[in-house]
Amino acid sequence: MNIKLDYILVLVALLCMGLTSNGQQSPQFTQYLQNPFVVNPAMAGVEDYLDINLAYRNQWSGFEGAPRTATISLNLPTHLLKGRLQRRGGESHTGLGAFIYSDDTDPIRKSGFYAAYAYHLKVSRDWFLSMGTFLGAEQFSFDASEVVLLENPNDILVQNFSGLNLDASVGLYAYSKYLFAGIAANQIFDAVLPYDEDNGVLTTGTSERNFNLLVGTRIAITNDWELVPSTLLKAVGNAPIQWDINSKLVYQDKFWGGISYRNQDAISGLAGFRLGNGFLVSYSYDYAISDFSGIQSGTHEIIVGYRYNFGNQKCACPSNSL
After folding, report:
1. 15 phi and psi angles, rounded to 5 deg
2. CA–CA separation, 49 and 76 (whole Å)
3. Of 169, 81, 89, which Cα lies nearest the Cα of 126?
4. From the centroid of its chain, how far is CA 36?
5. What sign does the CA torsion over 74, 75, 78, 84 have?
6. Which of 96, 114, 284, 312 could form a disulfide with 270 if both were Cys (CB 3.0 to 4.6 A apart)?
7. Distance separating alpha carbons of residues 144 and 129, to the nearest angstrom
């Protein structure tokens, strides 16, 4: 495909996705390009190195009971386990990964562990199509000690709850050296939650399926500077659609900074740097622009990553997760 035509198509997609309505999905990630594996299992093994990331997000600082999310993830192409790099230009291959998260919004906490598998099919000289899945378990718990009841402090209906459910996600991801696009469906099993409320009566509920669509490109401005625009569209049952649009400027693959907008929610700034050949540190701050902005002081997110390169990178895929 002609590169100039590729750029036109992806910029049109970015514009069109910016015309949708708003919403919110949890857990939230501002730096989704820093570790896109956590939003789409088809990203497992997309690059020719072992990719390890630790992340922490403190949402709506200063607001009691606001979400706090911690994640740890790793993924790699399976040929590296055999001590083998890809041939120049890339080849069809498989990837493995794992992802653990904890999302705490007192008095409710969700946590999960997932294993990932992906198959990357080379469909042309420049393009790959990856198909992947997360399979694991998610725990939902409710801590009654974190609840203050004004009218009936001793309500016997308000008790601790906990439940463990099988969970899964599936994803598709298409990529070349310059463009990338992926779609994923999460919580596809409609897991039963042990706590819900219907007209004041405690019942069980189900987790809602949610979907995300990621589109972006990597544009070389000079030999040293690259621009990485992208957008992430998110949809969850019984809620409006939410979209993020992001633009990141990268210098020599060592320093980067950018800005992001989440519709009717926040404007974010992000910056990061690479230490040596393997360690990366990236930070973002979300400035709220919603009606909620007056009772909190913004959102902080930090990611520390390590990428172990088994040799010269020879994968045809873009380094879009910088």
Report:
1. -65, -45
2. 6
3. 89
4. 5
5. negative
6. 284
7. 46
Amino acid occupying residue 47: E
Q: What are the tokens at 155? A: 């309500």
CA dihedral over 36, 322, 15, 179, signed as positive or negative: negative
Beta pairing class for 179-186 and 161-175: antiparallel
Measured between alpha carbons, how far is 72 from 303 in angstroms, rounded to an integer? Answer: 10
Contact 146, 133 (CB under 8 A): no
pLDDT score, position 194? 57
Which residues does the chain have with pLDDT short of 70?
1-26, 62, 64-65, 84-89, 143-160, 191-206, 291-294, 310-322
Unique residue bearing structure tokens 């890809």: 86
Listing DSSP states for 221-265 in one string gives SSSSEEEEEEEEEEEETTS--EEEEEEEEEETTTEEEEEEEETTT
What is the pTM (predicted TM-score) of this model?
0.81
Residue 308, both tokens: 């172990």
CA distances from 118 to 46, 78, 243 (A): 9, 10, 26
- Domains, the chain, with CATH or none: 3-309 (2.40.160.40)
- The pLDDT tens digits for 159-169 are 567 778 899 99
Written as six digits, the tokens of 152 are: 């009936």
φ, ψ of residue 82 to 5 degrees: the values are -100, 5
